[in-house]
Amino acid sequence: MNDQSMGQVRAKKRLGQHFLKDLNIAKKIVDSLDGKQINKVLEIGPGMGVLTQYLLPNKNFETHVVEIDTDSVTYLKENYPELDGRIIGEDFLKYDLSKLFDEPFSVIGNFPYNISSQIFFRVLDYRDQIPEVVCMIQKEVAERMSAKPSCKAYGILSVLMQAFYDIEYLFTVGEKVFDPPPRVKSAVIRMRRNTTSELKCSEPLFIRVVKTGFNQRRKTLRNSLKSLLGDKKLEDEIMGQRPEQLTVPEFVELTNKIEKLLAE
């Protein structure tokens, strides 16, 4: 193993992130990115470049990275001169990506566990520019992302992300391949933009309905949505179901019915 790879292995935990030290898995993650149609790639939180080193030789990709940690930015500049001008020392959650790309781009990364959901919601903000995401996240979150209706893992994240992306659970990653080892298993997922250009309902209300419904997921929608409906009642068969039983289109249908009811 060369000095650069050793540096990656010795990387320490920061910002809730665990660094991958198994280079075979790193390569497998990068190989999961399609990249046939999209040339631009943004890696989130590259750290010391364990994924970056496999992205850069791929001539199909023009790789950019966004990294908030100043020590990692310094390391990347010193060890990956090919990234000159393509290292963004900013917080992905706050950075205006329209400054970087005016065309579609893919996203890849080993996402910090503690902000992975926030990253996904940020991806939703740019969904018309991001056709594909490949990432490693906590296994529990990966299961929620890819879960189907009537499954225990199906919830808020499942519905909101699957409204705009088809999500594949690719493979599980054990704890021992990280430095420091996390207490939980990880998993790699791939998200591909589906054909939904926009929801056929009020998107803000859709989000409220989904979140309110799942806040009391064991109750039927008739009970869990009381705080949203106030003293109004929606007399509909769908209200007798629990939120985890509804598909994305059914949540859209429910949102439209609630909007009509609230307008009366």
Structure description:
The chain folds into two domains: 3-193, Rossmann fold (3-Layer(aba) Sandwich), CATH 3.40.50; 203-263, rRNA adenine dimethylase, C-terminal domain (Helicase, Ruva Protein, domain 3), CATH 1.10.8.100. It has helices spanning 3-9, 23-31, 52-55, 70-79, 116-125, 139-146, 156-162, 203-215, 221-224, 226-229, 248-263; strands at 19-20, 40-44, 62-66, 87-88, 105-110, 132-138, 165-173, 178-179, 186-193. 35% of the residues lie in helices and 17% in strands. The protein has eleven helices and nine strands. The strands form two sheets. It has a seven-stranded mixed beta sheet. The chain has a two-stranded antiparallel ribbon with strand order 1-8. Helix 8 crosses helix 11. It is of the alpha/beta class.
Summarize the structure.
With 264 residues, the protein is of the alpha/beta class.
Report strand order across the widest sheet: 4-3-2-5-6-9-7
CATH architecture of the largest domain: 3-Layer(aba) Sandwich
Residues in β-strands, percent: 15-25%
What is the ordering of alpha helices and beta strands? HEHEHEHEEHEHHEEEHHHH
Characteristic key phrases:
2 domains, seven-stranded mixed β-sheet, two-stranded antiparallel ribbon, Helicase, Ruva Protein, domain 3, 11 helices, alpha/beta, 9 strands, disordered N terminus, Rossmann fold, about 260 residues
